[in-house]
Specification:
The structure is a homotetramer of 383-residue chains.
Chain A (H helix, E strand, L loop, with lengths): L1 E8 L3 H16 L4 E9 L3 H11 L3 E3 L2 H6 L5 E4 L6 H10 L3 E5 L6 H14 L3 E4 L6 H11 L6 E9 L16 H4 L3 H16 L3 E9 L4 E5 L10 E8 L5 E8 L4 E7 L8 E8 L2 E6 L5 E6 L9 E5 L22 H16 L7 H20 L3 E2 L1
Parallel strand pairs in A: 1-2, 1-4, 2-3, 4-5, 5-6, 7-12
Antiparallel strand pairs in A: 7-13, 8-11, 8-17, 9-10, 11-12, 13-14, 14-15, 15-16
């Protein structure tokens, strides 16, 4: 069995999700190349070692440059916050490593373009992890669209709604600081929706947007606290420097009219990554909180028996599912990461590309940047 | 029992809905003034007579001016297409008649302003029939908001989606002609959503919008055909002169960020008048296709037991319901018109205003006009 | 226009529902015979007169025998509690009147058989009002079954659940007294479910049942209080003499295995008349609280796109709907009574029968009686 | 870190589910004893070795007695079909091994009683794997009941519905042979529902049941084919010797009236393990196909705002969830097995029992056996 050595940079939430996926992928799927969990990298030695022990990373390293430079490392898995993506990805590309990059891609469109050029030049397999593309129900949506079952697409709605910072006492974690996160839900959540829209509908031609902020100051965070439920440091308040919500209206190149909503202030929505697609022959609805389901309306049904059907995408005919459990035995959030690892390794093995890649990241960031421009100028932006 | 004579102008879809409501209101509700179905007015004698016979209108008249001028008529019910609203409403106000006006209010903002001024000057009771305000579940939404159960409102989404013209062979009915309808779903559907948004969230401060058209030519209609499933005349094609869909992003005066979507091309949506409201203490969801239900999320629930609850608003404690049937026995579309007649007559009796009135119509049209301006200029419009 | 005179016996909940339906039927539907609301009958003069005035019954009468004996009455509408059905129906049949009988049919199977024989002998049109057969979504279920879309039926589940007497202070209304009501939810609710099961699945061959009572004593009721939210008289407590819940398991003649649940102690269920049907080609789900919808699963769909689709049965192709409103404009509880009146008058006009009739009532009562026998003996009853 | 050596018997569907859980448990949860995947046992060497390699079992063995007799094995995980449970469990108990036993417990009530006595005598920790008790949403149901939020329980409905054998060409796998499986969905599915009913409602006092068979002969299976989508051997037909569906009505000791439905012929239901509980203060609904959700109705809510709320049981306050992902990131089927391993090891560590254990298995089989007796005699069985 051919193997490849993986070096992961980052050991928080995404480090956990990626590690689990590297482990699970070869257990549930037949893979031509088996990943070896070689080295885990992070700045703080103690938690890093504990992370490595737990997930079976053979070694630890606190300097990511050393990981990138190691000859025995084939794959760099970038699982750190976005302000670090640019530098690491460039170095990894230069070093000829295949790159598994967690989204969002970068802090700026310029960074993204440079990263894409570098990766393309180096000839490595580069992947931007919009994991939701690999949810079986989303793949089914794509299949139905490709088969023409939806017809010409008239409308897209992508809403990615959460509510984890509605409490004014929620601390000022890095997600709420522009220099770390680049932006708020616009980059974090709309980026997923834009990726899904490009995957399912096509390129976006025009954008308008409005963003807003509901809470401008928050308690400073406790550096050691957990990512999403962090305690406060007691050291006072700091300014929130990203938006709390971002709404867009867009025109697609194919004429579809669409909307996007990203917010962390949608009380009751936990990880509501939702889309609706309306077309001339049918329509689709997806909600990540019920990620095993896809709703499908078809005008091909007899007129008296048309309706949105809830497809439980857990049949063996649905992508990836045959490798998991029998019908009706649902899968969860982390399974999408497993699918990503499987497809990424397969792309490396076959020497092909994999979508979404850094090029897709650039296209996505063009839309996101255009939206921010529109929000600040009050004008439509034509892409 | 005090009575008042009603003259209705229009005998199509809305003529039917209004006539039924005039009849049902006093049967199910205690009313201090009982409406008398005095005269029905329309241009074509034969179908008008048949309409009057069916619903029990005592007389018929083909000239609406004569109806408005009759001394024995107390109330003018305007149930014709919107291009006729201005002239009739002005005349009715001048003649001192109470006015029950079907929405949308007028063809232009200027008309609306003039109508509102005339009605206000005349001292009559004037009502613009956004019937959905009188759906018990919508009233419950208002009550929860007024009680503070939703807290500060962060987000509004209003989507009014239908699919009745996705077939390119659907004829060019008056709804698709700008000189008759003023606009497409923007005026027809967004108007309802804007009214609900103003009722539930507040005034709108800024608007951006995009509109589009999917089908530019359609078969000419058969003049005698039914309104929504009309046959074609066989006389060739004509230009569609209204938009097919209109999306807006708005900022409310209270800081809430909102979106609107109106389309007649949302395959699978029949009369999907949908809203979502997210606030600091709770959230609400409504869908007219399930109009007896309201979804309510409350952060006041214990943390482990929070969720969107589906309230079946058919208890006797819900507005209007005690007059209908026992709990769980749902009401339908036309009941909202009955409620409107009851409240309108009550306002006349008590000499008070009733919302929404012509002033509300003006405010609503300011938003709709701003949106059309934004769609054509590509710029945000500040109201 | 041919007319027929109706005499109604009963002026409470069902008197209201029937009166409304007699009025609405000719307004929304083309009828060859138009009903005339001739005389309303009840024991207490004052509320009766008020009822008659409200609904337009021309005359009142306190002795039902006089109504039945009048030559000018063509139709007897029996809308009183079930302990009075037998005597009135027999007299009406004997007098040659067409009979519109509210369910449940009678107090005993013997009564039902006698009533059916009398009605059959007299040659009148006799109808037992299981109104839910005339819900468009239920008619669609029947159509799909008749077309073979469900295939061989394997399973039926009928649950009719309410919660209006969970409060121990709810008074001992007539519904809870065996001499007035015959039985509790078994006769009131299971009767509806058995009718639907016979309509959709077929005859029942074997029954087992268990019944139970949760609250054995309740405050005596205030005689003047409204039916379902009645006050108490303050005169002490009385014994509940009917069951509070009744569950059945049945085998149908065609081999389907089924279950029934009827309860007034299902907290949160208001008028939850629910059925599920599973067959070899497809399945169906219906819930009266969402009575405009039918869920349909079809194995004829491609394997990757199968799911329960929610059909909004408000298209003009659905039974009765073309006479009401456009698609997506839902109808309510009372509309089913209107449909019943329309079909009943049509049956009279054409001289045909109408289902369910008194014969159906007998078959239904055979099942209900068998269940009570099983509950008391602990043995399966073979029909 | 203390460790314990596990020997697993069986390498098919349940072998896979258990192996994954043994691996995942220590990665996501803090465990005082860490399981070591020591030896995997099965009769066919080749697929067994492949299974062991995939999941990291250190050794393989084809004779289960040798595994049970090994001194270095602490835990026997029994993951073979039920006809083998009795013999292995007895031997394991005798050898003083802790036992993790997959359900259903045994072929007969007598076997179950003997197994329970042996396990109790030996002093080992014994666990019967009704994994659904460890679904966070089910645990939440238990919590709400224990807190009194549901009040006195009036009704239980447990339906476990699947459709994987509706195709008459589905082969005669071991599940359909009485000598291998004991019974059909009654033992396979009702057993789960009875376990949940005992967990949530209490002991059952009386049972009636009906069972039936829809397809009596099926093609003989291909021995090498996968468990649930197996090919046929081409060697002709064989008799189905188990029931295809089993329905029960029960009375609980606390007076609740309940129903059970188990079928493999419920077209459209894939793994629909559903329950409803109605009580004097509230109600609960669960559906395994949406296993991250629990519906909860509370009469403690204000009367105008009562409704079934859908709790997404993915908050950190919900059992087990803090160890997985942030809110709204759902978990899947296999996670329940992980929870079982965690709790089982914890019970061993603390020297306490764990529910459900073999005693629970006996109580459950008493109900199942009583139901089969009732189905054959046509009489209620009092437990």
């Amino acid at each position: 069995m051919k193997t490849m050595n993986v070096g992961i940079i980052g050991y928080q939430f995404m480090g956990k999700a990626h590690s689990n996926a590297w482990l699970q992928a070869p257990r549930f799927f037949n893979m031509n190349i088996k990943p070896v969990l070689k080295v885990a990298c992070g700045r703080r030695k103690e938690p890093l070692q504990s992370f490595a022990d737990n997930w079976g990373w053979e070694e630890v390293e606190t300097d990511w440059r050393k990981v990138v430079e190691r000859d025995d490392i084939d794959i760099i898995d970038i699982a750190v916050p976005q302000h670090l993506h640019y530098e690491i990805a460039l170095a990894a590309a230069k070093a000829g490593k295949h790159i598994f990059l967690e989204k969002p891609m970068a802090m700026t469109l310029e960074q993204a373009r440079e990263m894409a050029a570098a990766a393309e030049d180096s000839g490595v397999t580069h992947y931007l992890n919009h994991n939701y593309r690999r949810c079986p129900a989303v793949r089914l949506a794509k299949k139905l669209i490709d088969e023409g079952k939806i017809g010409d697409i008239y409308h897209w709605r992508g809403a990615y709604l959460q509510d984890w910072i509605t409490d004014p006492q929620f601390p000022l974690t890095w997600h709420l600081q522009k220099d770390k996160a680049g932006s708020g839900p616009h980059g974090d959540l709309n980026s997923h929706s834009v990726d899904l829209a490009r995957y399912l509908v096509g390129e976006i031609a025009q954008v308008t947007a409005m963003t807003t902020q509901f809470i401008s100051e928050r308690p400073l965070p406790d550096a050691d606290a957990a990512t999403f439920k962090g305690g406060t440091s007691g050291a006072g308040m700091g300014k929130v420097t990203v938006e709390d919500a971002s709404f867009m209206t867009v025109m697609f190149k194919n004429g579809a009219l669409g909307s996007f909503e990203a917010s962390r202030f949608a009380t009751g929505r936990k990880n509501y990554n939702f889309f609706e697609i309306y077309g001339s022959r049918g329509s689709l609805i997806f909600n990540l909180e019920r990620m095993n389901e896809l709703e499908f309306f078809s005008k091909d049904d007899p007129e008296y028996a048309q309706g949105f059907r809830t497809i439980l995408a857990t049949e063996s005919v649905h992508d990836y599912i045959a490798n998991w459990w029998p019908p009706g035995h649902i899968i969860g959030y982390e399974h999408e990461f497993v699918h990503a690892m499987v497809d990424f390794m397969d792309a490396i093995n076959r020497g092909t590309g994999i979508a979404p890649d850094f090029y897709d990241g650039v296209k996505e960031m063009e839309v996101l940047q255009a939206a921010l421009d529109s929000a600040s100028t009050g004008k439509v932006v034509v892409l």
